[in-house]
Amino acid sequence: MDAKSEVLLRQPELFSGNILLVNAPQDQLSQSLDATVSIWSWNFADHQYFLQSGYHSVFDIVPPQQTFDQAIIFIPKAKELLNYVLEHCAAILGQDKPIFLVGEKKAGIEGAAKQLQAFAKPVKIDSARHCQLWQVKAQQQHQVKPLEAWLKHYQYTFKQTHLDICALPGVFSQDHLDIGTQQILPFLAQVKAGKILDFGCGAGIISAILAKSNPKNHITAVDIDAFALHSTQLTFARNNISPQLTTIAITDIRDVDGRFHAIVSNPPFHQGIKTHYQASENLCQFSKALLRSAGELWIVANRFLNYQPFIENSFGHCQIKSDQNGFKVFYANKK
């Protein structure tokens, strides 16, 4: 059982009725509560876990639109994402219904609890297992701001073409172009045209550049995160290239069907506050099966992430196209 769930179960009398669990970990908390539980998750792996466990789970950027008596929020990493989640939960619950906030001290629960002050004075319920549990009851009815109010935008220009990148709360590098992506952008003009897979699409800048640079390119953008997938859709809509895009929620490269002329990725290596390499290592090992003859793999990664042996083991070779600013650009093709 996750430590945060253990803290909740120290106070079982607090939880009853119809409960919305938000961003919950993969454990047995749901079946341990004497309540009717629904899940709101934007992580596709978590969503799949709860579906397979027999629970009502919604994978979306908004919570299920039904009546709840309580909400239990496991704090996300991004402060602005927590503001977004709190506003949606307060709106769907209404006045005087408890919103519980739980998280680890090292993940910033004490700072997160201060964000509850926008709704009422929060109360600390418990502190154990290096975690804290807080509660607040909204003193008035809250309205959800339009999605546009939560969007961050930044501009990118290439070959006299201007792109407007859109990103929702919690999406990697929400308000600026990250250093890793900067390193692979000069090589996108070399990527083989046709059907292209963007693994870990984020806000969609790599996908959008590939689509805008060649109207014949069709991009399949995949990610584990609902906010990332929706951000990519918004980026394509803002730049009038939506017909060139397909988005798919996945947990791993092995969830992808189809054959592609190229796979391009600035792969994630964090889940929450924890470092997680498995998805990226699987990309290196299993992407070859998704490529057509002479298909290409392009990956940019932090220099300390040693993906080269995985790529060489799969493809028989691996070129380092660039090594600067702390990032390497790896290339291989299916011979």
Structure, described:
- Residues 5-154 form the Methyltransferase small N-terminal domain.
- Keywords: Cytoplasm, Methyltransferase, rRNA processing, S-adenosyl-L-methionine, Transferase.
- Its main location: cytoplasm.
- Pfam families: MTS (PF05175), MTS_N (PF08468).
- By secondary structure, this protein is α/β, with parallel strands linked by helices.
- The chain folds into two domains: 3-137, Rossmann fold, CATH 3.40.50; 151-333, Rossmann fold, CATH 3.40.50.150.
- Helix content is 27%, strand content 31%.
- It contains eleven helices and 18 strands.
- It has helices at 3-9, 29-32, 44-52, 79-93, 109-114, 147-150, 179-184, 205-213, 226-238, 278-286, 308-315, and strands at 18-22, 36-41, 56-59, 70-74, 98-104, 123-128, 131-137, 152-158, 161-167, 195-199, 218-223, 245-249, 260-265, 270-271, 274-275, 291-302, 319-324, 327-333.
- A seven-stranded mixed sheet has the order 3-2-1-4-5-7-6, with helices on both faces. A seven-stranded mixed sheet has the order 12-11-10-13-16-18-17, with helices on both faces. Strands 8-9 form a two-stranded antiparallel sheet.
- A hairpin with a 2-residue loop joins strand 8 (152-158) and strand 9 (161-167).
- Helix 10 runs parallel beside helix 11.
- It is elongated, with a radius of gyration of 21 Å.
- It starts with a helix and ends with a strand.
- Mean pLDDT is 94; it is low at 270-275.
Number of domains: 2
Mean pLDDT: 94
- How is the biggest beta sheet arranged? 7 strands, mixed
Number of strands: 18
CATH superfamily descriptor of the largest domain: Vaccinia Virus protein VP39
Give helix and strand order, one letter per element, not per position.
HEHEHEEHEHEEHEEHEHEHEEEEHEHEE
Number of helices, counting only DSSP H or I runs of 4 residues or more? 11
Helix vs. strand class: alpha/beta
Class of the largest domain, according to the CATH hierarchy?
Answer: Alpha Beta
CATH structural architecture of the largest domain: 3-Layer(aba) Sandwich
Extract low-pLDDT stretches: 270-275
The global form is elongated
Q: How large is the radius of gyration? A: 21 Å
